[in-house]
Design goal:
mainly alpha; 80% helix; 0% strand; flat
C-alpha cells in the first residue's frame, strides 16, 4: 500500500479560508434567525432572500472545505469556486472604497486580491494539487 500524497500548502490555506468564511456565515445566519425570532422580522421578503443567499455561499464554502478534506476532485473545484467568490468580493471591495481609503488599505486589499488569485490558480492548475486530488491507490 503506497503512502498518500501530503496535502499541499495551497490546499491548507484554501481549507482554512473556506472554513472561516463558511463558519462565519453560519454564525451570521444563526444570529439573524435569533434576532428575527426575538424582535420580529420587519421585512420578511428581504430577510428570506438574504438568508437564502447567504446559505448558498455557506453551502459552497462548506462543500468545498469538506470535499478537499476527503480528497475528492469535486471538492477541489468547489474550493476553486469558493476562493474565486472571495476574490470577486475583495475586488468589489477594493473598487468601492478606492477613493475613501488611504494607501495602506489599498495596498493591503490589492495584495489580498493578488494572493487569492494566485491561490485559485494553484488550486486549479498546480501539479502538487493535481497529484493530491487524483491520488489512486493500486
Amino acid at each position: 500500500m503506497a503512502p498518500k500524497t501530503k496535502r499541499p500548502i495551497s490546499v491548507w490555506i484554501a481549507q482554512i479560508l473556506l472554513g472561516l468564511y463558511g463558519g462565519g456565515s453560519v454564525l451570521i445566519v444563526l444570529w439573524g434567525l435569533y434576532q428575527g425570532l426575538t424582535e420580529g422580522i420587519k421585512n420578511p421578503e428581504l430577510f428570506f432572500f438574504t438568508t437564502v443567499g447567504i446559505l448558498a455561499f455557506v453551502s459552497l464554502f462548506c462543500a468545498g472545505f469538506w470535499g478537499m478534506a476527503i480528497r475528492k476532485p469535486w471538492g477541489r473545484w468547489l474550493g476553486v469556486a469558493g476562493v474565486t467568490v472571495l476574490l470577486i468580493a475583495t475586488a468589489v471591495n477594493l473598487t468601492s472604497r478606492f477613493r475613501d481609503s488611504g494607501a495602506p488599505y489599498i495596498l493591503f486589499t490589492v495584495l489580498a486580491a493578488l494572493g487569492l488569485a494566485f491561490l485559485a490558480y494553484k488550486l486549479a492548475a498546480g501539479d502538487a494539487e493535481e497529484e493530491f486530488f487524483n491520488d489512486r491507490l493500486t
